[in-house]
């Protein structure tokens, strides 16, 4: 996916999507993250912000999900607002919006209006419930979407309320990433056929899709439909977390026999560990493992397991993670503009991606976008 033919390629951009133009109608959560990922991969993303701002009131200077983008201000409720957005759409490859169903249509920038101007456009729609269904027009957030899919009910200890996994499972895994996959697939189709289409990315659909393996295990009798009773949900004593003497935690994932043998040997219970294949003794095994972990600090246990095949790692905080030796060596995190943040992912051998600019400030790029995209109507009218 190289240059689109919609004008000159921005020489400052690199990555496999260099030359792809994206219009993002400002929103919150999964839509901006998806557009950030496209920008990380080299796309020229123009975010259409509304005058006065909106959303969750994050200081725009620190909103990393707007890195690598450019911003223009357009009031879609003004008389000429829709026309200005459609001028951008005519020159774009992709549009991303996260309004409730029907809102874009009422504003005059729905799929019909956009495809009338640009039949090749990929129109990406990001919602929680999807574009249809009984709850389509109902408000919601990540926690509700993952609740009804069964994903939330899987997470946490037996006998306790489900544990809330921030908004990673729904908004970003089940939402943003599925929108990006859909947009790129539709872009490939558009370039092959000349026909754009609408991508309906719903968090409920994506999150449900993420549980495919678990549904297969459940159908085969290898997964119980309750929390804390299975191999991968904390029910298994050799796949979980344990507290250390200093209040830290270690994560254990010694599933295979050879990794388990290394784990128990280094932990110091190899000669007396209860049978791992007997779920009836899992409670006994968990107590033995927990007791050993409580005898040393997190740092001490990290040193014991470092570089081994025991599948054990320290549980780090967000502030600690960038300093982990492996992540530091790979450059998994980067410091751009004084903000420590995750570097673009995944990695490409021929077209490496990189962070090109900090968070786009609302309206700061109107002149450059008007010139690069040849949309003079974006410029303020002279008095």
Tell me what you see in this structure.
Helix 6 (168-193) packs across helix 7. This protein has 383 residues and is α/β, with parallel strands linked by helices. The chain is built from 13 helices and eleven strands. Strands 3-2-1-4-5-6 form a six-stranded parallel beta sheet, sandwiched between helices. Residues 1-9 have low confidence and may be disordered.
**Alpha-beta classification:** alpha/beta
Whole-angstrom Rg: 24 Å
Number of strands: 11
Please write the string of helix (H) and strand (E) elements.
EHEEHEHHEHHEHHEEHHHEHEEH
Largest sheet: 6 strands, parallel
User: Low-confidence parts, pLDDT < 50 over ≥5 residues?
Assistant: 1-9
Which strand order do you get reading across the main beta sheet?
A: 3-2-1-4-5-6
Give the end-to-end Cα distance, rounded to a whole number of Å: 42 Å
* Beta-strand content bin: 5-15%
What fraction, in percent, of the residue positions are helical?
A: 25-40%
Mean pLDDT: 94
Silhouette: elongated
How many H/I helical runs?
13
């Amino acid at each position: 996916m190289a240059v689109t033919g919609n004008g000159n390629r921005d020489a400052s951009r690199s990555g496999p999507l260099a030359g792809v133009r994206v219009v993002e109608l400002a929103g919150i959560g999964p839509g901006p993250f998806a557009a950030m990922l496209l920008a990380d991969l080299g796309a020229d993303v123009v975010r259409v912000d509304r005058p006065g701002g909106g959303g969750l009131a994050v200081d725009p200077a620190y909103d990393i999900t707007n890195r690598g983008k450019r911003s223009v201000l357009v009031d879609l409720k003004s008389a000429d607002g829709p026309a200005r957005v459609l001028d951008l759409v005519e020159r774009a490859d992709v549009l991303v919006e996260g309004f409730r169903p029907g809102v874009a249509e009422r504003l005059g920038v729905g799929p019909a209006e956009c495809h009338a101007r640009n039949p090749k456009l990929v129109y990406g729609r990001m919602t929680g419930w999807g574009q249809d269904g009984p709850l389509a027009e109902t408000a919601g957030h990540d926690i509700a979407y993952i609740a009804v899919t069964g994903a939330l009910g899987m997470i946490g200890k037996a006998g306790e309320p489900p544990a809330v996994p921030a908004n990673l499972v729904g908004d970003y895994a089940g939402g943003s990433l599925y929108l990006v996959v859909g947009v790129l697939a539709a872009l490939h189709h558009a370039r092959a056929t000349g026909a754009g289409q609408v991508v309906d990315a719903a968090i409920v659909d994506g999150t449900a899709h993420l549980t495919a393996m678990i549904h297969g295990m459940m159908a085969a009798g290898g997964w119980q439909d309750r929390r804390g009773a299975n191999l991968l949900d904390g029910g298994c004593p050799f796949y979980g977390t344990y507290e250390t003497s200093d209040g830290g935690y270690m994560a254990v994932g010694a599933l295979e026999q050879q990794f388990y043998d290394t784990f128990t040997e280094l932990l110091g219970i190899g000669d007396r560990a209860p049978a791992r294949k007997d779920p009836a003794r899992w409670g006994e095994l968990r107590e033995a493992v927990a007791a050993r972990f409580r005898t040393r600090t997190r740092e001490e246990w990290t040193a014991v397991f470092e570089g081994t095949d025991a599948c054990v790692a320290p549980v780090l905080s967000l502030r600690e993670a960038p300093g982990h030796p492996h992540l530091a060596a790979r450059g998994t995190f980067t410091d751009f503009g004084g903000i420590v943040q995750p570097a673009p992912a995944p990695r490409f051998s021929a077209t490496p991606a990189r962070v090109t600019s900090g968070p786009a400030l609302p309206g700061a790029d109107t002149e450059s976008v008007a010139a690069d995209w040849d949309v003079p109507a974006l410029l303020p009218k002279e008095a």
